[in-house]
Structures are given as C-alpha cells and as structure tokens.
Amino acid sequence: MKKKDLLLKIYERLLNHFGHRNWWPGDTKWEIIIGAILTQNVSWKNVEKAILNLKNARCFEPADIYRAPLEEIAELIRPSRYYNMKAKKLKAMAGHIIEKYQGNVDAFLKREKGLENLRKEVLSIWGIGPETADSILLYAGELPTFVVDAYTKRIFSRLGLLSETAGYDEMRSFFMNNLPPDRELFNDYHAQIVALGHNICKNVPRCEICPLKEI
Ligand code: SF4
C-alpha cells in the first residue's frame, strides 16, 4: 500500500474510534498562541488554570504581557510548571507582536507571508521550538503545517513507519510529503495521534483495544 493511502487509512481508523477532536480550545488566536506555549510538558487542565489566572488578573492580551514584570507573569502561570521559562517565552512572543505589529495578531499571522517564511519568523522568537511553532501556525494561523510530538514518534515507530531516532523535521516531512496539504486534516490528525498516545499507545501499549492493531 502507498504511504499516502496507509496514512489516510490510519487517520480514518482513528477518526472512527475517537470521533473528531475539535481542536484547538481557545476563543482567539492569541489564546491559542498562549496555550501552545504553556502546554509543553504539562496537562491541559493546568494550562487552563494558568490562562484563567491571566484573564482574572487582566494580564492576558499581548500589550498586558509585554508591560507586566516577568515575575508577575511567572506567578500567574505557576500551574503550568516551568513557569519562569514559560513567562519569558510569553513575554518574547508578546514583545514580537507589539514591537513589529503594534499588537495585531492577525497581521503577525498573515497567510500571505507564506508558510515557510512565517515558520522561520515564529522560530526566530526566543524560546519557540518547532512543535510550538507548528501548533501556532496550524491552530492559530490555520496554515497546513503538520505538528509532531513524542506521541507521533512513539506510535509511528511502533508501526514501523518512522525510525526511533527520527528528528522533528524528518517526522514533519514524512507527513507533509505523503498527505494532501489540507489544514483540516492536519489539524485533526495531530489531535487523533495525541488521543491514541494518551489513551492507548502508552509506554506500555494496550494493543488489544487499539484501532490500529491490524495495521
Ligand atoms: S497500541 Fe499497539 S497496535 Fe496500537 S499503535 Fe501502539 S503498538 Fe501499535
């Protein structure tokens, strides 16, 4: 079977099993950006608490975060773990949007810049790695870039489709070269992978209940 057909078959099985995941939670593009930065190495519940703290303190919009002292942001996002580092990242992102785009998130994520140019720009912001950058571009920017994570590597190496030593860009290219550039598909495919990795293809895989067991 061609890789493209196999990847689509895997998606179809995951979709039938978990249903559409309706990602990404967040009312605005800026909230999605904040969530993408805060979610690294922590559960989403903790991210929600941190976002709520920022909102309640009226320290949420790019201009608020740009102006607030680093220690204040860190304290508000304490539930998200690694809060000192994440506060620095939030301030770097807010600083980029304020200084270059007068706080206009739509202008920052303007699609006309082209996916790869915009990706380079997002990656140039202090502390933003490829997984966060692609999450921002896909879920806030609505651009067809594929997000890969530790679950992706674990599942697709167990399926024999990726090497256990594959790096981020190699994994991303594998999906982007073998799937149609469809942002809706990329959006839900990543969400399905997270659902499988979180619930079934864990450190100790539960193959007996896996929708991919025949594959
Ligand atoms: S749970 Fe088992 S069958 Fe399912 S993807 Fe992981 S290793 Fe494969």
3D architecture notes:
Helices cover 61% and strands 0% of the residues. By secondary structure, the protein is mostly helical. The chain folds into two domains: 3-22 and 146-209, Endonuclease Iii, domain 2 (Orthogonal Bundle); 29-140, Hypothetical protein, domain 2 (Endonuclease III, domain 1), CATH 1.10.340. The chain is globular and about 55 Å long. Bound molecules: iron/sulfur cluster.
Brief summary of the model shown:
With 215 residues, the protein is an all-alpha fold. 61% of the residues lie in helices and 0% in strands.
How much of the sequence lies in strands comes to under 5%
Uncertain ranges: none
Q: Mind describing the biggest β-sheet?
A: none
Q: What compounds are bound to the protein?
A: iron/sulfur cluster
Describe the protein's topology.
Layout: H1 3-18, H2 29-38, H3 44-56, H4 62-67, H5 70-76, H6 83-101, H7 105-108, H8 115-123, H9 130-140, H10 150-158, H11 168-178, H12 183-199
Labels describing this entry:
binds iron/sulfur cluster; mainly alpha; 61% helix; 215 residues; Endonuclease Iii, domain 2; 2 domains; globular; Endonuclease III, domain 1
